[in-house]
Amino acid sequence: MPGWLSLLELQNPLNGIDVTQMPTCAIENVQRYKALSRAELDVMMELPCECEQVPLQKLINQHSCSKCDGLYWYSFCMGDVVQESCTWHCTKCGTCRDWQEWHCLRCNRCSYGVTLPCDGCGSRERDPWI
Ligand SMILES: [Zn+2]
Ligand SMILES: [Zn+2]
Ligand SMILES: [Zn+2]
Ligand SMILES: [Zn+2]
């Protein structure tokens, strides 16, 4: 019953996709991922370490560079390949952030500087869930 199947898909867009290796950014942008054509997924992307080029498809999941072992994934927010240790996707802000940014509970926005208090409210109260 195709109608029933597409209804299920609507309710859970992650249905049928293995998300275990997927970075938060790809999971949050799964509709954009699904909208990519075969040709777009085959586009070769250069890793930030410049060791190798891999098709975009591989960067939807975390990809470790075969030469330097760096971990990379494709950020839908930035439209570019990012390094796992340098970038994270803030689900509250709905966008990718630099590793030096953290999400302030009081202001409900990200603040810059891991060792600094929030520049909005002076609090250090991080969101423990992200
Ligand atoms: Zn590399
Ligand atoms: Zn993102
Ligand atoms: Zn945030
Ligand atoms: Zn704040």
How do the helices and strands line up, and which of them pair or pack?
Elements: H1 2-11, H2 24-28, H3 30-35, H4 38-41, E1 44-46, E2 53-55, H5 56-60, E3 63-64, E4 71-75, E5 80-83, E6 87-90, E7 95-98, E8 101-104, E9 109-112
Antiparallel strand pairs: 1-2, 3-4, 4-5, 6-7, 8-9
The structure holds zinc ion (4 copies).
Characterise the protein shown here:
With 130 residues, the protein is of the alpha+beta class. Helices cover 23% and strands 25% of the residues. The chain has five helices and nine strands, in the order ααααββαβββββββ. A three-stranded antiparallel β-sheet has the order 3-4-5. A two-stranded antiparallel sheet has the order 1-2. Strands 6-7 form a two-stranded antiparallel sheet. A hairpin with a 4-residue loop joins strand 8 and strand 9 (109-112). It is globular and about 45 Å long. The model has no long low-confidence stretch (mean pLDDT 90). It binds zinc ion (ZN) (4 copies).
Instruction: State the distance separating the first and last CA atoms.
Output: 39 Å
- Give the helix tally: 5
Structural class: alpha+beta
How many beta-strand elements? Answer: 9
Largest beta-sheet details: 3 strands, antiparallel
What order do the SSEs take from the amino end to the carboxyl end, as H and E? HHHHEEHEEEEEEE
Widest beta sheet: strand line-up: 3-4-5
Q: Work out the strand percent.
A: 25-35%
Question: Uncertain spans, ≥5 residues at pLDDT below 50?
Answer: none
Radius of gyration over all CA atoms, rounded: 17 Å
Large-scale geometry: globular
The average pLDDT value, as a whole number, equals 90
The ligands bound in this entry are: zinc ion
Helix proportion:
10-25%
